[in-house]
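Database export, one record per block. Field names are fixed; values are copied verbatim from the stored entry.
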Amino acid sequence: MRTVVILAASAALAACSSTPAEQPTPPAITLYQCAAPAGMTAPEHQPLRPVGNYTQEDVALYITDLHHWATRGWRKLARVREHADKCVASNDEDDED
C-alpha cells in the first residue's frame, strides 16, 4: 500500500514539473471608437398631442408636426450612420498604412 502511495505522489509531482502545451494566439481584434457627437444624438421632444375638446384641425396639425418630427429623426439617424461609416473608413485606411 505504501508503495502505491509513493508511486502516486511521485507521478503527481512529475506531472507538475512538465510544461503545458503552447496556447495558440488569438486573432487580432480591431476596435473602432466611432461614437457620434452628442449633438447628433440629442433627443427632440415629441409634438404635444391634442387633449380635451379638440377639432379635426388640431388632429391634422398634430399629425403634420409628428410627421416633421419623425422626418428629422430619420435624417439625424442617416447623419449618424454617415459619421460612423466615415470613421470606420478612416480607421481602415490607418490600418492599411
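Remark 1: The mean pLDDT is 83.
Remark 2: Residues 11 and 34 are 55 Å apart (CA to CA).
End of record.
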